[in-house]
């Protein structure tokens, strides 16, 4: 039985080309009643995808008071572990303890090549990084030999121990999250993917464990006044072209997504329709997670659209007409 439900706004990835839009969206998400605001990371993308999520979250911290600020996800193996620990600590301080640090591996070969990181080492680096980040948060000297760190210290410390989440779809990634993390984020909330993740996570983490959070991203298009569905679909379609080009020929989503529908935008939208349809669809996702004590539903409603006002109106509309039916 779910004892705690949080609802996030995301994933914002800066595709308007102006990262200051993220600041406006974080503020709008807080005003609309969302519990968290999510950003994510890619490099060298043609649509202006955010390359530095923690920098943007620091800016969001200055215009918000309550909403959690989350990365979904930082591509952890591409970052120097000490610098990542320091940046995370500062963002948590600047936000007065509101950072939720999601970490993942990524999938784009060009990013690993650009940073000179051997992708064969990425799983081991991520696993070592979780322990290093926890040690860094104490403010005491620590070693992380697997990451090349010896007798290092992070000051100032974060405002509190930063929740560490892991992403990923493969069984190994899910098992890692269940063993090491405070939560797991499913970035594509299709029923089969969510169910597969639940089965694997439940083998290493008790769903009733109140220290673990099940996070699921659900892509949502609201076809109602104030929803801007046509803008949303057009923006999503433009962005998706770039991602599909990178993923072509790869078994992304651990082979759980149908590659034959890669070009079908509706295949990437889990919930759509008028207010009643959206409420019903999101309730169905929550019902599938009912066994988990803590659930964090991340509703992706911001896409690669040039008109920020349309997106801000959509966020306010969902806050007014959808969120009250989910609490």
Write the layout of secondary structure elements.
Layout: E1 4-12, H1 20-32, E2 36-39, H2 53-61, E3 68-75, H3 81-94, E4 99-104, H4 109-115, H5 122-136, E5 142-144, E6 149-152, E7 164-167, H6 171-180, E8 183-186, H7 191-202, E9 213-222, H8 229-247, E10 271-273, H9 275-288, E11 294-300, H10 308-321
Parallel strand pairs: 1-2, 1-11, 2-3, 3-4, 4-7, 7-8, 8-9, 9-10, 9-11
Antiparallel strand pairs: 5-6
Helix pairs in contact: 1-2, 1-10, 2-3, 3-5, 6-7
InterPro entries: Bact_Lucif_Oxidored, Luciferase-like_dom, Luciferase-like_sf
Domain Luciferase-like: 11-220
GO cellular component, one term: cytosol
Named CATH topology: TIM Barrel
Unreliable spans are: 251-257
Proportion of β residues? 15-25%
What's the gyration radius in Å?
Answer: 19 Å
Cα end-to-end separation: 14 Å
CATH class label = Alpha Beta
Q: Count the strands?
A: 11
The CATH homologous superfamily corresponds to: Luciferase-like domain
**Shape descriptor:** globular
Q: Briefly note the structural class of the backbone.
A: alpha/beta
- Provide the number of structural domains: 1
Tell me roughly what share of residues is in helical segments.
25-40%
The major sheet is characterized as: 8 strands, parallel, barrel
Q: Give the averaged pLDDT, no decimals.
A: 92
- Count of helix runs: 10
What CATH architecture label applies? Alpha-Beta Barrel
Secondary-structure element series? EHEHEHEHHEEEHEHEHEHEH
Q: Give the spatial strand order of the biggest sheet.
A: 1-2-3-4-7-8-9-11
Domain Luciferase-like: 11-220
Keywords: Monooxygenase, Oxidoreductase
Organism: Actinomycetospora succinea
Protein name: Alkanesulfonate monooxygenase SsuD/methylene tetrahydromethanopterin reductase-like flavin-dependent oxidoreductase (Luciferase family)
